[in-house]
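Fig. S4 source data, part A: sequence.
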Amino acid sequence: MKPSDTELKSKVRAYFAASPPEARRALNRLRALIRAAVPKATETWSYSIPAFRLDGKILVWYARWKNHTSLYPLIGEVRRANASELAKYDTSKGTIRFPLDKPVPTGLVKKIVKGRAAEIRRKSKPGPSRSAKSRP
């Protein structure tokens, strides 16, 4: 069940409040960068962490851990397009980790989020119908 706006704000606020100061700063930075990159995205809560939705689909999740913050998903074209910059960070199958002792990379985060938004929009665009394809 989708949380109400009040429940959502409460969950996000509690998540941030439970974070150590350096993690809270990094989370606030990630949140601001996501909003700046895709202003039409809406905040949500999924898998017990904050996230943003775009056109009804998850745009990105972001989370804090002991020594880093993470941004998910890091997949497909976005991963390939930013491979050289991503090499500077610890990544796994669908995650990029930003160490708490370094600033969140503004440009990279915006590129990842904008690239993810482009993927979502491309996949949700209706293509030609089957009947149109079969016409001469």
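Fig. S4 source data, part B ends here. Confidence is low (pLDDT under 50) at residues 129-136.
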